[in-house]
Each structure stands twice: as C-alpha cells, then as structure tokens.
C-alpha cells in the first residue's frame, strides 16, 4: 500500500534487493544538552543550523563545538563558547526550518541506523492522538484490529506481478536467520496485501464469511534513498486496513468510505484542508484498480500525499486464490480494498501550521492544550502564586482539558514562554501576584503571536474559565483551518494550456486544468516541470472542457504540483 509514503521511481535506487544499503543522513542536534569535550557531528553539505543567530522568539542557549574545531583534551579547563541558537526562518530555508522545529520541539531524532528516526514522546503523542480518533472511526465502520507478522516470504511478493515491480527497489530482505542461510529469503513488511491475502484464503470459504474487514497498527520498512524525518524514512508507523467483499460495488463503497474518513479527520482534527480525489493511472498503487488520495498543500506549497485508499479489484484474490462460494454455490474471487495513513501525517501538521517561532499544533491533536506559567519575583510571592496556578490546573484538568503546569525553578518565565510557544501549545495561562489578588489570569494564543494574542483579566472562577478556555481552543482550531484554506486556495492556479501549467509550476504553485493526457504525456510533464498529477478532485467544475495538453474534450480537471 502506497498510502503515506509515496513510491517515486529514482535513478539512484538499486535494482538489487539482496543487501541492505546504508543511507547518509544529517543528525538532528540536541537542543538543551551541553556539548563538552566532543566534536560536532554535522555532515558534509549540511549547514550548522544549530549555531545560527536569529531573532526568533524560540532562542535558547547551547554550548556547541564547531564542526571544524577539534575537541579539547579532557584535561583542558577551557569551555566551548556559548552561542545563541534559534529556529531558521521558514522563508529563508524551509527544509532547515523543518529540521530545526523537529529538533527543538523534541519531536524526533535520528536513530543509529541511517535513515531511521526515533520518535520522541512529544512527537509520538501526536501520533497517539491520530490513533485515538481513527480507531474509533474504524470500529464505528465495522472494522476490527488485528496484527500480521512483519516477515513475509519473498514468494508472496512475486505472486502479483505489478506489486513486485512497484516495490522491488525498496525491499529490505532477510537472508540469514539463527546463523544459517534461509531456504527462502524473507521480506521485511513494506505493506501487507500479500500476507493478508494468504490468510484471507484460509479464513474465507463462503459468502457468509463476507465482508471481512480488519485493520492493523504496525511498522513498515521501505529502503528509501532520499529521506526526511516523518515524511520519508526507512521505517515508519501506520495503520493499514484490508477488506474483502462479495461484489465490486461493495468494495468501491468501502474504498470511498475510508477516503471520506481520512478527509473528515484532516479537516476536523488536523485543520488541514486536503483535496480528496482519484489518482491517475501512472500514480495508482501497484496492484490496485483505482487509488483515492487526500492531497495537502504544505507551507512551501509542495503537495503531500497524506493518505490513500485503494480499490484492489480482484488482482490479489486471483493471485492468491482467495475465493468464496456465493449463494448459488459458485466459486468467486473476492473484491478487496486497502487503505492507510502513516506518521507522515505528523510531518504534514508541522509543515502546514508551523511558523518562524516553531511548531503550531491544532488543539484537537495537541497533547498539551494549555500550559500554565506561574510568575513571581520575591520568595514570599511564590507559594500563593503556585497555589493559584495549581488550582487553575485542577479546574481545567477536571473539565477534560489537557493542561500542564510548568512550575520548574530552573528557567525564567520568559524562557518558558518562548519554549512552549516553540512547542506549539495552543494556549498559555500566566499567573502572577497581581493576578492572584484579582483572581484573574492572562491568556496568550499561540496562533496570534505577541501582544495581539494576549487577553488580560480572565476570571479564575471555574464557571467562567472552563467555557472560556474551551471556546478559545475551538477558535484556534477553526482559525488554523481557515488560514490553511486561504493559503491553499491562493496558491492554486486554473490553467488551460501546457504553457500556463509550466508557468504556474515555475512559480511554485499548484496548477489545475482539464486533462485527458496519456501516460506518456503525464511523464513528459513530470520530466519538464518536476510536477505530477496529484489527483482528479472529486469536486469537479461543471461545463465542457478542453485538455490543456491535447486540446481534446475532457471530462475532468486534474491538479498538478511538485510533491514530497
């Protein structure tokens, strides 16, 4: 399933899968650790992002040994210089900004095996929020969770011709086990259609066994040669659903139902205005009759395939002999679907909503929706401020709001403001001695930086504070979606000729125009512009159209864009 990790052919991919290659990746720098007696590990070609000086509100202090400097001997008492470290502005270098946010917001780090990543607790909490929502929706639509092995016999992959052709460049293989060479090499799960069909063949005998609808939360391995944290890594996490049906109509309804679940999740939970649609033949998943997708516009205007749903037809059931006896006793091959969203969506959230300060999280997916920062100057003020802050925390927690009290003594209130803003917490509550006296608090919105986002004199009384906080969280959720919709729509250009398409793509925008071009025409667009057909949107404009490439009558418009 090419759900959230798009398969893009590359001249750099090896055609041999018998050995696992190594990837060269930059290491994300630790933000708050002091580097002492160690050389810098910035790889070649990667700028020393962590020692740049910026005026970002997310500035912190870190001791860093420059990459070109030899680490001092252990006997030396000289300390490395202290330098300001800030997030690279998005407009200056989007990729560097993205890596900075992941590192400084403590979302992930690189693993010891090149191409892998360690998802840190704050980043994994976003994935958990995605899981929590989707698990409910999957079960509401009749699916059950289960788990399949991650090792798949290579012969399974070979059974479906287009499937093996599509995945061969990315396969990781196991050839030795227990110190002995295996009789048959094993594939480390790139997707599970093959092993699912092997089991479905044993479980499905009659029409009474249908529909069979399951989902699994698992890890997947694809030997990517070009990697980016969350977006494209050797190993990633996802959910993959698999269903078997008695008729093609049932399978089509299922495939459409699940892309609709993903679309609603994107809009209502992630505040990402995806465009749902059908993939072109060239972009259809290997082994599927039709692939449906949700396409999201990132902050750099590249497209992100955020989730897919495939109508597999009978391709896998014929390859594996997955049959059932219908009501007339006739043997029929089942009709199937598969669909998934992965941790790639976490990267999509970062790149859709983040700003120069750092991460911006939609409240419904934030593990911390409100952070409370107590403020005092004198020792005799501390106890009453902390007592009031703890009381506010308890009020909000009891109301089901995800709240954190940052009562640590090691950092100043200003440092805490910057830190939690950088981590994207939707709301901040400030409580000082004057607030305690007036029984009120100061509230700051993450989506409106600086003084415009500050609200003073909000009562601490639970009857007022709880509905007020919930209202503000809802406002932020809606504001993020509205802002993303405005950005998306202002960067989609309607085109009616190939020259207009090329001009739009050269400006970094999405091009939307009538299309009936051949596969060869589509590949020509990719070669000449770097853009691909992202989808034929479900929402189509009425009226007659002429293909922007051929001039022939076209029934649909397609969206073209450069993508991740």
TrEMBL record:
Q: Which residues form the Aminoacyl-transfer RNA synthetases class-II family profile domain?
A: 114-362
| EC number per UniProt | 6.1.1.15
Q: What class of enzyme is it?
A: ligase
Instruction: State any GO CC term.
Output: chloroplast stroma
Q: What is the lineage of its organism?
A: Eukaryota, Viridiplantae, Streptophyta, Embryophyta, Tracheophyta
Q: Which HAMAP family match?
A: Pro_tRNA_synth_type3 (MF_01571)
Q: What is this protein called?
A: proline--tRNA ligase
**Could you tell me which PROSITE patterns the record lists for this protein?**
AA_TRNA_LIGASE_II (PS50862)
Alphabetically ordered keywords of this record: Aminoacyl-tRNA synthetase, ATP-binding, Ligase, Nucleotide-binding
Entries under PANTHER family matching the protein? PROLINE--TRNA LIGASE, CHLOROPLASTIC_MITOCHONDRIAL, PROLYL-TRNA SYNTHETASE
**Gene3D superfamilies annotated for this entry?**
Anticodon-binding domain, Bira Bifunctional Protein, Domain 2, C-terminal domain of ProRS
Q: Does the keyword Ligase apply?
A: yes
């Amino acid at each position: 399933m090419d759900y959230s990790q798009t398969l893009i052919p590359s001249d750099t991919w090896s055609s041999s899968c018998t050995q696992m290659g190594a990837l060269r990746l930059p290491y994300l720098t630790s933000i708050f650790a002091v580097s002492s007696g160690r050389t810098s590990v910035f790889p070649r070609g990667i700028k020393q992002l962590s020692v740049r000086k910026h005026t970002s509100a997310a500035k912190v202090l870190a001791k860093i040994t420059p990459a070109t400097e030899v680490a001092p001997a252990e006997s030396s008492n000289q300390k490395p210089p202290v330098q300001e470290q800030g997030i690279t502005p998005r407009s200056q270098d989007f990729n560097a900004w993205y890596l900075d946010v992941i590192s400084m917001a403590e979302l992930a780090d690189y693993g010891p095996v090149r191409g892998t990543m360690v998802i840190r607790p704050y980043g994994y909490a976003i994935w958990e929020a995605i899981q929590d929502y989707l698990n409910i929706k999957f079960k509401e639509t009749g699916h059950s969770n289960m788990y399949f092995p991650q090792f798949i016999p290579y012969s399974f992959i070979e059974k479906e011709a287009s499937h093996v052709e599509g995945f061969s460049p990315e396969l990781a293989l196991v050839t030795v086990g227990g110190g002995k060479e295996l009789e048959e090499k094993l594939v480390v799960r790139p997707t599970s259609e093959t092993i699912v069909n092997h089991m479905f063949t044993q479980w499905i005998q009659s029409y009474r066994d249908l529909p069979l609808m399951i989902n699994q939360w698992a890890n997947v391995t694809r030997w990517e040669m070009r990697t980016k944290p969350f977006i494209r890594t050797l190993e990633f996490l996802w959910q993959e659903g698999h269903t078997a049906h008695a008729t093609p109509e049932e399978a089509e309804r299922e495939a459409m139902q699940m892309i609709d679940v993903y679309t609603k999740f994107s809009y209502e939970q992630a505040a990402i205005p995806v465009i749902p649609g059908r993939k072109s033949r060239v972009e259809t998943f290997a082994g599927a009759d039709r692939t449906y997708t949700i396409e999201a516009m990132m902050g750099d205007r590249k497209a992100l395939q955020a989730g897919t749903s495939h109508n597999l037809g009978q391709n896998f059931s014929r390859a594996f002999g997955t049959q059932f006896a219908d009501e007339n006793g006739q043997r029929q091959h089942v009709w199937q679907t598969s669909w998934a969203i992965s941790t790639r969506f976490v990267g999509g959230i970062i790149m859709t909503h983040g700003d120069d300060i750092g991460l911006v999280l939609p409240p419904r997916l934030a593990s911390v929706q409100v952070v409370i920062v107590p403020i005092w100057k004198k020792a005799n003020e501390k106890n009453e401020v902390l007592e009031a802050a703890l009381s506010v925390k308890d009020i909000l927690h009891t109301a089901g709001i995800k709240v954190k009290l940052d009562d640590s003594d090691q950092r100043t209130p200003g440092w805490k403001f910057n830190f939690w803003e950088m981590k994207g917490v939707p709301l901040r509550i400030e409580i000082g001695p004057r607030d305690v006296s007036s029984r009120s608090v100061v509230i700051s919105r993450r989506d409106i930086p600086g003084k415009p986002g500050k609200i003073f004199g909000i009562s601490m009384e639970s009857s007022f504070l709880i509905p007020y906080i919930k209202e503000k969280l809802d406002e932020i959720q809606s504001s993020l979606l509205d802002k993303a919709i405005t950005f998306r729509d202002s960067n989609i250009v309607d085109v009616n000729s190939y020259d207009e398409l090329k001009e739009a793509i050269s400006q970094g925008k999405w091009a939307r125009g009538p299309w009936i071009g051949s596969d060869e025409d589509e590949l020509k667009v990719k070669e000449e512009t770097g853009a691909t057909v992202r989808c034929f949107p479900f929402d189509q404009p009425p009226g007659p159209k002429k293909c922007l490439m051929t001039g022939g009558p076209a029934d649909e418009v397609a969206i073209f864009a450069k993508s991740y």
